[in-house]
Amino acid sequence: LVVMDDIWHIEAWSDLKNYFPNDKNGSRIIFTTRITALQPNLERAPHFLRFLTKDESWDLLRQKVFGKGSCPLELVEIGKQIARKCQGLPLAIVVVAGLLAKTDKIRGWWKQVAESVSSYIVSDPKQYIDTLELSYNHLPPHLKSCFLFMGAFPEDYEIPVQKLIRLWVAEGFIRQTRKKRLEDIAKEYLMDLIDRNLVLVAKKGSAGGIKACHLHDLLRELCLRKAEEENFLKHIYKHEQLFSFFSSKPRGNKQRRMCIRSKAMLNAPVYSQAFGDISPWPSAPHVRSFLCTPLSFVSISFIHRSFKLLRVLDLSPIKISSIPTEIVNLVHLRYLAIRANYLTLPPSISELYNLETLIAIEGVSGFEIDQKSSPCHDHLEDSYFRSSSRWGNLYSKDLLKPYGINVPETIWKMVKLRHLYIPRGSYIKELTNDIYPSVLDNLQTISQIRLSNSCKDVLARTPNLKRLGFSGGLISKLEGYFYLAFPDLSSLNHLEILKLSNWIIPHDSSIVRSPISCIFQSALKFPPNLKKLTLEATYLSWEEMSILGMLPNLEVLKLMRHACIGQRWETSHWGFRCLKFLKLDDLDIAQWKAYSIHFPSLQHLVLCKCEKLEKIPSSLGDIPTLQILELSWCSRFAMDSARQIQEEQQSVGNDLLKVLIRANSRRETEHGPYQPSG
Hints:
By secondary structure, this protein is an alpha/beta fold. It has 19 helices and 34 strands. Among the domains are: about 1-40, no CATH class; about 55-125; about 130-225, Winged helix-like DNA-binding domain superfamily/Winged helix DNA-binding domain (Arc Repressor Mutant, subunit A), CATH 1.10.10; about 375-400 and about 470-565, no CATH class; about 580-678, no CATH class. The strands form eight sheets. The chain has a 17-stranded mixed β-sheet. Strands 3-5-4 form a three-stranded antiparallel β-sheet. Helices cover about 25% and strands about 20% of the residues.
C-alpha cells in the first residue's frame, strides 16, 4: 500500500506514475487531496469524505480527551453538545479536545466551553491555522479575493448565492473570458471554492443549483485573519471602533471594505446621533465597500462625504425614511441596495452611470420579513378592495404593497445596469424618443413590474433578460370569459425564469368573492427557453396546465396560493417531459389523477397547505428519478398516502426515495423540524 497524501497538482502523480506499473498483484495506491477537480485525472471514482455524524463526533471527542478511559456520566451530555457544535469537522473536534484534555474535567468548565465552542477553537490558532492556510495559499489570486470577501457576512450566516455573485461582480473580482456572462463565470469560481472544500453548500435550489453557502467557523476565522493582514476587510462591532476608524489619519487607514455590525451602535446614546456625528470627520478614501447588518432608523447623509469612491453600498438592512438625493454623487457605485419607508427613485439616479445592480426595497427590513413570513410562502394579506371600473366584475387583492414605485424613464440611460430589483407592482414610465440609448443589452433581471402599456416597449429594449416578473392586474374579461394575459415573450430567447403574480380576483357579481377560473389568452406566447415558472393567484383552471406541460425546457413549476382553482387535476399525457421540481402551495385541489409517465424526469415534489387533497397518486412513486416527496400542513389522508408510497417503494428495493412530512399540529407547525416518515 502506497499513500500519497495532500496532492495539490496532478503533476505530482504524473511524475511517479510510470514507477508503479499495474502488475495485478493486489497492491493499492491511495491519494488524498482537498481539490475535487483533480479526481478525473486519477482514473478512479473518488471517495468523498463526509462530515462526521453526531455519534461519530462524540466518539472522536471522547477518545481524544479520555483515551481508553471512560467519560464521567455528568460530562456525557455536555460533551455531546460540544461535539455537535464542531459541525462534524474532525479538525475542529481534535482542537477542542486538546483544550479539554489539558484542563480540569469538571462540569462547570465543560459547560462554559459548550456555550462558546467556536471562540475556544480559535483561541489557539497554532493548532489549526497552518493546516488550513495551505488551502488558502494554493488559491489563484482571483479566488483569494472571492474567498476573503465571504468574511464580510456574519458568523453561521447562510450566504445567498445570487447576492454573493453580484457583489463579486461589482467588486471586480470576476475576469471576463470569451463570451461568458460574468455571473456564469462567478458561479464557476464558487464551484471551484466548493471543490477545494473551502466553502460549504448550505442550501440547494429547486432546480438543483446552489442557493446558499456558508463557511465553517475555522475557515471563517482563517478568512478574517487573512482579510485583516491584507487590509481587505474591517469589521466594526463597537462604537469606539467606529470612532477610531474615522478619526485615524486617511493614510493610515487602508481598509478596503467596511462592515458595520449592529453592536457597533449599542454604546451610542442614539443610533442616528452616532451616525450623524461622522459627517464632519475625515473621509475614508480607501474604502470601496460599505455593508451593514440590521440597525434602527439612522441618518446616512454622511456616506457620500466619507466614502466618495464606493463601489458597493448595501444599506438594505437599515431603516431610513427616504433615499437621500446626495447618493447620486457616488458615481463609482456598481452595487446599490437600499430600503426606505417612502421609496422613490429620483430621475437623477441615472447619474450613477457605473451601476450594475440596483435593489430598491420598500417597507420593513429583510430581517423582519423573514421573521413574519410563512415557511411555505411570503406573508400575504387577505384584504380585498374594489378595483377601478375598467376591470368590470373583478376584485383586487393586496399582496404586500399593491402599487410599488414609479421607475423614472432616465433608467434607460444606465447602460451598465445588469439587475433591477424593485417592489411588487412597480411601474416603468412610458419611454420618450429622446432617451438614449434605446436598448440595455446588459440588463438581465427585472423583478415584479406592473403590467402596463409600456411593457411591450420595455421588453423590446431588454433583449437579453434572463429573469422577469410581472405583478398586478394580469386578468381581464372578454366576451364573458376571464383571461390571464401578459405580453408576448417569444422573442426573449435568453429568458429562463418568469414569475406571474396577480392581484385581480375574477368574480361573478352574483356570488360575492367567489372566484371564477381563468384560461390562458389564445395568443399567449412563452419564451422558448423558459426553465422556471412561478404562478401566484392566477386562478387558472386545472385544464390549462396542459399548455404549461408542453413547454419544452420547463424544469421548475411552482403553483402558489390560488394559482389554480378547482378540486380536480387530471394531468395530461403529453407534457412535463423535463420537469424536475413541482410545488403545489395553498391550493384547494382535492383529487389528483396522474401517472409516472406524466412526470418522467421529476426529482422533487412539494405539497404545502393542500388541506383538501385526499391522496397523492401512488404511481408517482414509480418515477425512477424521484428523490424527495415533501409535505407541509397537508391533510392526514395525503400524509398517509405519502407514507404508503414510501413503503411500497421500499418493498421493491427502492430505498432512495425520501418522504419528509411536517405534521399539522400548531406546536409542530411552528417549531418542529422535518422528519422522515417512518
